[in-house]
Design goal:
The chain is mostly beta strands and about 70 residues long. The protein contains no helices and 5 strands. The chain has one domain. The chain has a 5-stranded antiparallel β-sheet with strand order 1-5-4-3-2, with no helix packed on it. The mean pLDDT is about 85.
Length: about 70
C-alpha cells in the first residue's frame, strides 16, 4: 500500500523553480529517494522535492529557510 503524502494536513505549500537547462539526476548522492519517476526526495523537516531532469524542481511543504 502506498503512503499518501500530506494525508494528515488540510493544506500544504508548493513552489516550482526552474533552475537551468537540466539536472543530471544520476549524479545525486546522499538522499532518500521515495519515488523514481519523477524523482521524489525528502527535504527539510516535513517537506519533499520533486526533481525533474529538464531543470525544474517542485518543493512541497518547506519552510523558507529550508528552501
Amino acid at each position: 500500500m502506498q503512503k499518501l503524502l500530506f494525508n494528515d494536513k488540510d493544506r500544504f505549500r508548493a513552489q516550482a523553480l526552474f533552475l537551468g537547462k537540466g539536472i543530471n539526476l544520476q549524479t545525486l548522492e546522499n538522499y532518500v529517494c521515495l519515488a523514481s519517476m519523477p524523482v521524489l526526495v525528502k527535504a527539510g523537516e516535513e517537506g519533499y522535492a520533486v526533481l525533474l531532469g529538464y531543470g525544474a524542481v517542485v518543493l512541497f511543504n518547506l519552510e523558507p529557510v529550508e528552501r
